[in-house]
Structure formats: C-alpha cells, structure tokens
Design a protein that fits this description.
The structure holds 2 protein chains of 2 kinds. Helix content of chain A is 69%, strand content 0%. Chain A contains 8 helices and no strands. In chain A, helix 1 packs antiparallel against helix 5. The mean pLDDT of chain A is 84. By secondary structure, chain B is mostly helical. Chain B contains 4 helices and no strands. Classes of the chains: A mainly alpha, B mainly alpha.
Chain lengths: 185, 80
C-alpha cells in the first residue's frame, strides 16, 4: 500500500506557487520559470505510473522540477557556446586593486539573504498548504497579490466581515505554523 | 463613541492595520486596548512579525492567467 497518491487535477492550485518560487530564484526569468513548471507538470503526468507513493506529491514534483532546472542551465550554457570565465579590467585605474577585491564582496551577503528569503518564502507557502485551501487562497490574494477587499468578496461571494474572519484565521494558523517550522529551526 | 473595545474588535483592527486599512480612530482604540490586554498584545506582536516575514520572503504567485493556462494544459493531457 502506498501512502501518498497523485491528484494531477489539483496540481496547479496546490503546487504551482510553490514550484514557481522555487524556480524563479534559480532562473530569474518569469517566462522561463513558467515553461519549466509546465514541463514539470507534463513530465509528472507522463511518469505518474512510476510514482511509488513513498514521498509526498510535492516532493515528487520538486524532484522532477530540479531536473528540469538543470536541463535549463545546460540549454542556457550551450547557447552561449561554453561557460566562460572572464576577468576584465575595463578601466585602467582599477589595476592594482586586486588585493582589495579579495576582501569579501558585499554582494555575497545579499546572496545569502536571497537564499534565506527563498527558504522563508517556501516555508510560508508550505504552511499555507497545511491550512484550509480557500483560506489560503484568499490570504494569498489579499496579502501577496494585494487585491482589494471588494474584488475578493465579489469573487468568492462573501461579505467583507466574512473576509476578515478568514484573514484572521489564516494569519493565526500561519503564524503558529511558522513559529514551529521557521523560528525553531 | 466608545473608546473601550472588546478583544474581537481589537483583533479585527489589528488585522486591518496589517493591510493599512485601519483608520486613525481605530488605531487609537487598538492602542488603548493593548495597554491593558496582554493576549491582544501578544497577537499584535505576532501579527506584525508575520507581515514583516511575508514581505521579506518576497513570495510571488503565478499570475492567474498563467495558472489557467497550466490548468488547461493539464486537463488536455488528462483527457487524452
């Protein structure tokens, strides 16, 4: 008996945002990320008989996604011909500054920050996955997409006070989940 | 106009202010409530922390039109 099952009809709603955030920091291009996610879903569908149910659906999709991202790196690299390492000093006044350049680059810190923020983003999406699906969707629309209250209410046919109750529940659940999964890491 | 508010109202104002939708008067009432209510103080701190985390994480969502495309594509494959 396998523990997990695949439900491809729910993939887009449940995993596309997670996969997108995972991909976008790695390829840094919306269209490319979009293509990779679409390829990932199709590849998943094609090989769904190989799914043994030992990992969650998402873990399984991520493993496919990783291969697709690597393929993309290869493609990008072969398009350039080959990977190059260039050391350029365009301005002559930069010459002799080499020692200083060995000192840690301030941009390295931002790379670290980017990574940590990505992990945080995935942790938040992970937590949102564990709460009521409708609440999670409404929370994302309101908080991340910044859609105004009225439009959300119209779409879901709820009143503003319904919406705020949902937002309240989502925020409480999310804060609790993050306290366990993010701060106690 | 009442200055003292119950906890439910305090939560509500606190939530609204995370989206900059609480008015000055509401914020004043919340501040006053927080002076004497420990539970709401805790909620308020947590709530603000959550807002900062979400902002820092720089989460992006797949635009809705793109999601629809993905759904359509999957549906076609599933129907095959």
């Amino acid at each position: 008996m396998s523990e997990y099952e695949l439900h491809p009809e729910n993939w887009v709603d449940r995993y596309s945002d997670y996969l997108y955030n995972y991909t976008i920091v790695r390829v840094n291009d919306h269209d490319v990320a979009q293509d990779i996610i679409s390829e990932t879903f199709l590849a998943g569908l094609k090989s769904k008989d190989n799914f043994k149910g030992e990992a969650t659906e998402r873990t399984w999709l991520i493993s496919i996604l990783k291969r697709k991202i690597i393929d993309q790196y290869r493609k990008a690299n072969s398009a350039k011909g080959k990977a190059e390492v260039r050391i350029n000093y365009s301005e002559s006044e930069n010459e002799g500054d080499w020692l200083e350049e060995h000192i840690s680059d301030p941009s390295e810190k931002t790379a670290h920050e980017v990574m940590e923020n990505e992990e945080l983003g995935l942790a938040i999406l992970n937590c949102l996955d564990s709460i009521n699906e409708k609440h999670a969707t409404i929370f994302k629309m309101k908080t991340i997409d910044g859609i105004d209250t009225e439009s959300i209410c119209n779409e879901f046919n709820i009143t503003a006070s319904n919406l705020w109750v949902i937002i309240h529940r989502a925020r409480t659940a999310l804060a609790e989940c993050l306290e366990h999964n993010w701060f106690k890491k | 106009m009442k200055l003292k508010i119950p906890c439910e109202d305090a939560y509500h104002i606190c939530d609204k202010s995370q989206y900059k939708e609480a008015c000055l008067w509401e914020k004043l009432k919340l501040k006053l409530h927080l002076l004497y209510c420990r539970a709401c103080r805790k909620y308020s701190v947590r709530n603000q922390k959550l807002s900062k985390l979400v902002e820092r994480s720089n989460i992006r969502t797949v635009p809705r039109a793109n999601k629809e495309q993905l759904r359509e594509q999957l549906r076609k494959e599933l129907d095959k």
